[in-house]
Design a protein that fits this description.
- The chain is α/β, with parallel strands linked by helices.
- The protein folds into 2 domains: 176 residues, HUPs (Rossmann fold, 3-Layer(aba) Sandwich); 101 residues, Pantoate-beta-alanine ligase, C-terminal domain (Pantoate--beta-alanine Ligase, Chain: A,domain 2).
- It is 39% helix and 18% strand.
- Strands 1-4-3-2-5-6 form a 6-stranded parallel beta sheet, sandwiched between helices.
- Helix 2 links the parallel strand 2 and strand 3.
- The longest helix is centred in the middle third of the chain and has 16 residues.
- The N and C termini lie far apart (41 Å).
């Protein structure tokens, strides 16, 4: 496919001008929001989007409102040329690359907050993060009005918060979660993995192994030894520190819908659960999760 097949727009007006005829013709439109630095996880999102809709739009915007002052906004990985090559290879129809003022006009004040489920885990350790995420995603969904938007399960709390926001605001879009893509050794793919040194990269899969160990403990306990879960988590935290992680923000078992704490399998009462973790390894803050 030639590069001319990938249309690129930078304004809401141009975005809607491209999407309008497809929508008028009855074609489903899929949106894949990204911050660039695309990898195989993004490729999986795009391929799932293509399976769900004949027209695929990818947005690329490094959203400043989800970064705290001490975080890596200025250093966030960027690879625009390689990103474009991937989108061309995957047959993406439209790339939306808005400027800052297009997303946040001068004097803008509106923000979307997600109390409760947005205040724990990532929300606790990155205050304001989900306000930035919910705000920018709502803008993208309103600007593009796709039939379906796709997000990776690696950012599971983010995915569930977006689903809640769409439901609460009655936005006419389907939210599709796509399973986490991993390296052979289990490390979840992330744009920030480029921060890892060779030694840190070798240690990084320990986070995934810790999540699996907690899952195995809960399954083996079968609801009868829930009191041992805190001790199990402490052991896994100690193991991550021994493996080279600088700190562990959380290893936690939660209800997948509400993010209420889970002490044992019995407390889920048949509802889906999730085991989530976040830890610092060198310059990289790694997050991961698995279903329970």
């Amino acid at each position: 496919m030639s590069e001319s097949k990938l249309h690129i727009t930078q304004t809401v007006e141009a975005l809607r001008a491209h999407l309008g005829p497809w929508r008028d013709a009855g074609e489903r439109i899929a949106l894949v929001p990204t911050m660039g630095a695309l990898h195989e996880g993004h490729r999986a999102l795009i391929r799932r989007a293509r399976a769900m809709a004949p027209r695929v739009c990818v947005s690329l915007f490094v959203n400043p409102t989800q970064f705290a002052a001490h975080e890596d906004l200025g250093a966030y990985p960027r690879s625009e040329s390689q990103d474009r090559d991937m989108l061309v290879a995957e047959g993406v129809d439209l790339l939306y690359v808005p400027e800052l003022l297009e997303m946040y006009p001068e004097g803008d004040v509106t923000r979307i907050t997600m109390p409760g489920m947005g205040d724990c885990l990532e929300g606790e350790h990155r205050p304001g993060f989900f306000t930035g995420v919910a705000t920018v995603v709502s803008k993208l969904l309103i600007q593009a009005t796709p039939h379906v938007a796709l997000f990776g399960e690696k950012d599971f709390q983010q995915l569930q918060i977006i689903r809640r926001m769409v439901l609460d605001l009655s936005l006419p879009v389907e939210i599709e979660g796509v399973p986490t893509v991993r390296e052979v050794d289990g490390l979840a793919l992330s744009s920030r993995n480029v921060y890892l040194t060779d030694e840190e990269r070798a240690a990084a899969p320990a986070l995934y192994r810790a999540l699996k160990s907690i899952r195995d403990h809960l399954r083996d306990a079968d609801g009868h030894d829930g009191g041992a879960l805190p001790e199990m988590v402490v052991r896994e935290v100690d193991g991550l520190i021994s493996a080279g992680f600088t700190s562990v923000d959380y290893l936690s078992v939660r209800d997948s819908a509400t993010f209420a704490r889970v002490d044992d399998m019995m407390s889920l009462a048949g509802r889906p659960g999730r085991i989530l973790g976040a830890a610092q390894l060198g310059k990289a803050r790694l997050i991961d999760n698995i279903p329970l």
